[in-house]
Amino acid sequence: MKHKTKRVFFVLGMVVSLLVMAWQPVVAQEGSTLTIASGTDIENTNIHIVTSSPSFSVLEHIYEPLFSMSPEGELEPLLAESIEATSENTYEIALREGITFTDGTPFNAEAVKANLDWVLNVDNAATFRFLLVVGGEPAEVEVIDDLTVQITTATPFAPLPAHLSHGSLAMVSPAALDEGSDFLATNAIGTGPYVLGQWDRGERVVLERNAEYWGDMPDIETLIFSVVQEDGARIVEIEAGTVDVAVRVPPADMSRLEDNPDINVEVTPGLRTIYIFFNTTKAPFDDVRVRQAVNYAVDQAAIVEALFEGAALESTAPFASPIFGYSEQTPYSYDPDRARELLAEAGVEEGTTLELYHPTGRYIQDALVADAVRAQLSEVGLNVELRTLEWPQYVPFVRAPEEENEVQFAMLGWGTPTVDADYALFALFHSSEHPPGFNGAFYDNPDVDALLEEARSTLDPEARLAAYDQAIATIWEDAPWLFLYSEIQVTAIRNNVSGFVVHPDESLIATGATKE
Amino acid sequence: MTRYLIRRLLLAIPTLIGVSFFVFLSVRLVPGDPAIALAGELATPEIVAQVREDLGLDDPLHIQYITYMGRMLQGDMGQSIRSRLPVVDEIALRLPRTLLLTFASLLVAAAIGIPLGIASSTRPGSMFDTGSMIVALLGISMPIFWLGLMLMILFAVLIPDWLSLTSPVLPPTGYGTWQHMIMPVTALAANSIALQARMTRASMLEVLGQDYIRTARAKGQYERTVVYYHALRNALLPIVTIIGLQFGTLLGGAVLTETVFSWPGIGRLLVDSIGYRDYPVIQGTVFVIAVGFVLTNILVDVLYAYLDPRIQYR
């Protein structure tokens, strides 16, 4: 027995000493490497094709569009130098001189045309092709000279520069475009501050600094976008310091991370607004008093507080505040008495049954929000029945044409990737966009139509702002929606990192970041 | 024996064809159009139609199936909708990582679970027995993802905190070094350890009550010989069955473990692809997992013959 114990100890000793010898301490990479724990891998490296914000976050470090939208909603020239309207629907864009793609191909008017035409080519099935389609017609791109491009749209279209700032219209080396889709799916050749170092699929994307970059040289040499899907695991990573940035912090973990002296929790307003639209062609919601009554009866602030622990913003316009054209409105106060009065005036009887449609698992807490609305409306005597649908069935249902449309009121969310009010308002409130378009409320107000048309046809930002201001005030008063809230993004950043930007459009921008 | 093996392998072919058909149909019965998933909800009907055509989703189902099977026979599982890379490459990249995780867990589970079960069975009713069976019960009851997160917090946050280390003891997520393996393997093995311990204990108790064990003891053999030579060999049959089944469960568990620990294996590939309605990848992944199951089953049957000479295959 003694002999055996000795042997066991011997083996154990060997194992322990082997482990000690092989031990390499787990150290976060020092110096100028920045690691970002992202929730999802990129789809592929073709920026004209990808649709998810994690893909754009990574690829926008490699590819650059003609214009860029700052987090403050200011449109700035990037690869372009300026844009000018030469007639009411023709725009001339002057390009920046002396830029080359990382494969040596020069960036010029031909390159711009090659890229925009690639997106416009239906065969390439680019989702964001619609950014270049105005009034149902694709835009026409013409080369004027080496550094000038002309874009002609079917109707006047002021948001064009904003659309050109979208990541999907960033510039890819024409030589790479010629190689075809399979090549573009794994190779990334742009003009940006970083180049693709390595893509370990499902694991991480490594970007290296572009030594030849034409603009301000970034401080961070290596950027790692590490795929950490599980919310809890991202939190552990940031707490352990194995990553520098963690995205999508769940509301429940916010306060704990805020207490950690090594971590800053950044809250950025998002671009997606959640709302419940009323079918304004059907009783009882064809009466504005009933729509306003519902707005008075629902306590948005309480929903934001209870269901989101503050990680959402009560709506003060039909779209989120970072978007160009935003005009702050006073939210309908929570006033059940006023709601009851309005309902009585409109002749809606106590106990009237209504059907509220909502998706589940599509938006954060969607089903719970619908239930909260149901509960609050029952306080003012409305008997709401919830109808839950899976997302793939839901979309065609709420977008059914008028004669087949069964919706009384239904929940939806709308993001505005162009950060321009035209995108946020035209599709949702213009009378030409009734279902199968996105104006599910069948909202139809000639004044608003005129204002929205005016705002998309003038390039003057002040005039556009004035038109949106008026349109939004009217929409707010007409209440075709129960205005709810807009989402926010919560990001945890180690406090030795500064200059890291979370854009409202969910892009993560590390170009200006530094790390101590 | 060789003839038996060949027959079993041939019989596996219709099973796998059945699997491929079932998977092919079931991914198409789930609501949600991959063309919309790929193009996004903002895409115009024009673009969605183009995507659908590109993916060959316009063809009637039987044509799609024939095309799919025709390619399969040539070793081509198609192209991923999401990454546009060949499915075979996507799987070949990730399968070894999942197998590494699964086999490591299986080994750890057997190395701890079986001795634990034997030790318990030789001291039934003792403190040790009760204690280890309570622990086993805990192991079976703990969800993998929960245990995974707890381990992560312990090794990456709490222990470095207590010891005032500047870096975590173990990397919380990822893949690459043997240190990355410790937590996922522990989380994945916990359940199997428990199951194998309980199974071994039950099987051993039954065998230890048999007459020939009493005979062996009466002959004055060492207790160790009785337990390990006479009893264990006969108790192994149900244990091997359980281990074989466990292999499948572990492959399934790998889906969860891989998600929690960001382990870039086949399980996560499957989950991602389902979310994306990436039909070719779902089909390919499930098919490969099914092949794994079938081969394991055959292997277990063959092992029976070695363990119990009374079992003969013709």
What's the short version?
Chain A has 516 residues and is α+β, with helices and mostly antiparallel strands. Chain A is 32% helix and 24% strand.
Describe the structure.
The complex is a heterodimer of chains A (516) and B (314). In chain A, 32% of the residues lie in helices and 24% in strands. In chain A, the strands form 6 sheets. In chain A, strands 1, 10, 11, 12, 13, 14, 15, 16, 17, 18 and 19 form an 11-stranded mixed sheet that branches. Chain A is α+β, with helices and mostly antiparallel strands and 516 residues long. Chain B has a domain of 189 residues: Orthogonal Bundle (MetI-like fold). Chain B is 78% helix and 0% strand. Chain B contains 12 helices and no strands. In chain B, helix 1 runs antiparallel to helix 12 and helix 11 packs antiparallel against helix 12. Chain B is flat, with a radius of gyration of 24 Å. Chains A and B meet through helix 6, helix 7 and helix 13 of A and helix 2, helix 3, helix 5, helix 7 and helix 11 of B.
Secondary structure elements and pairings:
The complex is a heterodimer of chains A (516) and B (314).
Chain A: H1 2-22, E1 33-38, H2 53-59, E2 67-69, E3 75-77, E4 80-87, E5 90-95, H3 109-120, E6 133-134, E7 137-138, E8 140-145, E9 148-152, H4 160-164, H5 174-179, H6 181-186, E10 194-200, E11 204-209, E12 222-227, H7 231-240, E13 245-246, H8 251-258, E14 263-278, H9 288-297, H10 300-308, E15 312-314, H11 336-345, E16 352-359, H12 366-379, E17 382-389, H13 391-398, E18 409-415, H14 421-429, H15 446-457, H16 461-478, E19 481-494, E20 497-498, E21 501-502, E22 508-509, E23 514-515
Parallel strand pairs in A: 1-12, 1-13, 16-17, 16-18
Antiparallel strand pairs in A: 2-3, 4-5, 5-9, 6-7, 8-9, 10-11, 11-12, 13-19, 14-18, 14-19, 15-19, 20-23, 21-22
Chain B: H1 2-29, H2 34-39, H3 45-54, H4 61-73, H5 87-122, H6 127-141, H7 144-162, H8 178-208, H9 211-218, H10 223-260, H11 266-276, H12 279-307
